[in-house]
């Protein structure tokens, strides 16, 4: 490809496919490796292994540590997650934000550009929780500012709400590489901060956007298609009463499945009705 436009198109395709993270110092052209050059993994004789290949695919120690997956075995049943003490010690949102930024118990922070804490009005009656930051959110350090965030803004505007009347965050505060699905260990590491986040905001209505947020906070294995549109009373440590909670589709899912927007619209009307009822009685 001699034309610069061809290279730009290739890079654009890489980003769309989720290839946005380098894992080695030197690229490896695997099309030039012949099967005979690959060492037998059961053999102790390494003479057939090409040294150059071994050097090019070996990441630096820092990169290897960042890329190493966290095993589910790191979650010990019956023991509080590592961040529970830090989260519960935060008496204000500012303290919680600093605790999250300093927390080293989630490996995702090592590969993320920014910690994405929250956006909107912390005094709002409506709180929304999504799954995790995407590429644009990671660059800007704010949740829901990419394509899905723009759709969320339009959805809220349809019921007369903007970011000055809502508070928005995610289950994870750091972007998973390539926007992959978070692991149970990553979710467990961040969960104490999310629960404390809810307790400090004290929302009148909590909206869980997507299956990850819904299953995590509601403690269920049911899918989002069964959970959406239903009201739950979510008990949160630090609050004297349960929070009125509803699940709905994540805006990114609606971008991929626009036929679901009709159901999401019904959820929005339900949320609007609940907020109007709360305003009348308060």
In short:
Helix content is 41%, strand content 10%.
Task: Supply database-style keywords.
alpha/beta, 282 residues, six-stranded mixed beta sheet, 41% helix
Q: Could you please describe the fold and organization of this structure?
A:
Mean pLDDT is 83; it is low at 36-79. The chain has 12 helices and 6 strands. With 282 residues, it is of the alpha/beta class. The protein has helices spanning 4-16, 51-57, 61-67, 84-89, 93-102, 135-140, 147-157, 184-201, 211-218, 224-227, 251-256, 261-281, and strands spanning 119-120, 126-130, 166-170, 205-209, 231-234, 243-248. The chain is globular and about 70 Å long.
Oligomer: single chain
Kindly provide the radius of gyration, computed on alpha-carbon positions and rounded to a whole number of angstroms: 22 Å
| Proportion in helices | 40-55%
Listing every helix as H and every strand as E from the N terminus to the C terminus, the arrangement reads HHHHHEEHHEHEHHEEHH
**What overall form do the CA principal axes indicate?**
globular
Strand content: 5-15%
Structure annotation, total helices = 12
- Class inferred from helices and paired strands: alpha/beta
Taking pLDDT < 50 over at least 5 consecutive residues as the criterion, the unreliable ranges are: 36-79
């Amino acid at each position: 490809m001699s034309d610069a436009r061809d290279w730009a198109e290739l890079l654009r395709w890489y980003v769309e496919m989720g290839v946005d993270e380098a894992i080695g110092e030197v690229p490896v052209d695997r099309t030039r490796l012949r099967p005979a050059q690959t060492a037998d993994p059961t053999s102790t004789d390494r003479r057939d292994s090409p040294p150059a290949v071994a050097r090019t695919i070996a990441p630096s120690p820092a990169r290897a540590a960042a890329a190493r997956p966290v095993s589910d075995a790191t979650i010990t049943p019956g023991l509080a997650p590592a961040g529970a003490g830090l989260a519960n010690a935060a008496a204000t949102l500012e303290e919680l934000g600093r605790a999250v930024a300093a927390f080293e118990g989630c490996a995702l922070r090592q590969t993320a550009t920014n910690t994405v804490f929250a956006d909107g009005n912390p005094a709002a009656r409506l709180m929304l929780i999504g799954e995790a930051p995407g590429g644009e959110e990671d660059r800007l350090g704010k949740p829901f500012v990419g394509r899905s965030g723009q759709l969320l803004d339009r959805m809220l505007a349809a019921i007369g709400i903007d970011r000055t009347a809502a508070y928005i965050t995610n289950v994870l505060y750091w972007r998973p590489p390539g926007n992959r699905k978070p692991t149970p260990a990553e979710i467990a590491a961040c969960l104490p901060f999310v629960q404390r986040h809810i307790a400090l905001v004290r929302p009148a209505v909590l909206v869980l956007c997507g299956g990850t947020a819904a299953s995590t906070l509601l403690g269920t294995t049911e899918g989002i298609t069964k959970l959406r549109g239903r009201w739950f009373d979510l008990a949160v440590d630090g609050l004297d009463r349960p929070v009125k909670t509803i699940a709905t589709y994540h805006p990114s899912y609606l971008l991929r499945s626009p036929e679901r927007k009709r159901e999401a619209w019904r959820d929005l009307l339900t949320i609007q009705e609940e907020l109007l009822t709360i305003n009348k009685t308060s």
